Amino acid sequence: MAIAARQKPNSDARLFTLCPFWSSNHSVQRSSKTVSSVARSLLPPRRKLRLDPSNYLYFPYEPGKQVRSAVRLKNTSKSHVAFKFQTTAPKSCYMRPPGGILAPGESLIATVFKFVEQPENNEKMSDQKNKVKFKIMSLKVKEGVDYVPELFEEQKDLVTVERIWRVVFIDPERQSPALEKLKRQLAEADAAVEARKKPPAEAGHRVVAEGRVVAEGLVIDEWKERREKYLARQQVQAVDSV
């Protein structure tokens, strides 16, 4: 019996050696949390906006003219979301509005303006589509925060790139589903702009708060002035070339 009593601790030791989980449960939990956090960092960011169109921005192909496209944004998250447009060609393109804040479930249609360059060296319509790209970014914000572009610089680590659009030109003289959809969206965008110009008592539900509209308007005016100067230079160069 004495021999059996002396052997029991050894059997217990072997049991813990074979089953280290029971002796290091806390460290395993810590390890699993670390692995899960690393896995989350490797996953693509969860998008906060639903965009239509989702991959391309369609513009009528009218060389020498300023044309328009439109994109619908909807906040599909449970928090307020700031958004901001960017383009690789700020001298010839601008967006209205260039940024803003959407409450959960809110949506709006933004208008994108682009000057279509005259083709060079027998350049085709399809050759110009890869020259310009547009990007939209999103940022989760607290309710009541006013939109300013600096939000995206102050919290750049939390910014999500929602989409990068490529430009696709369509023939304005040829009927197509893309052209019909673009016309509908532009009509909605124009109606939304007119609604925002009305006094609050007449406008009813406003997609963007009055303070944000004013802030966006200042940016729009700045872009519009820069755009007009660019178009004026283009016209002077065209006259000189003749």
From TrEMBL:
Pfam families: Motile_Sperm. GO terms for biological process: endoplasmic reticulum membrane organization; endoplasmic reticulum-plasma membrane tethering. This is MSP domain-containing protein. GO terms for cellular component: endoplasmic reticulum membrane; plasma membrane. Residues 48-170 form the MSP domain. Belongs to the VAMP-associated protein (VAP) (TC 9.B.17) family. It comes from the Eukaryota.
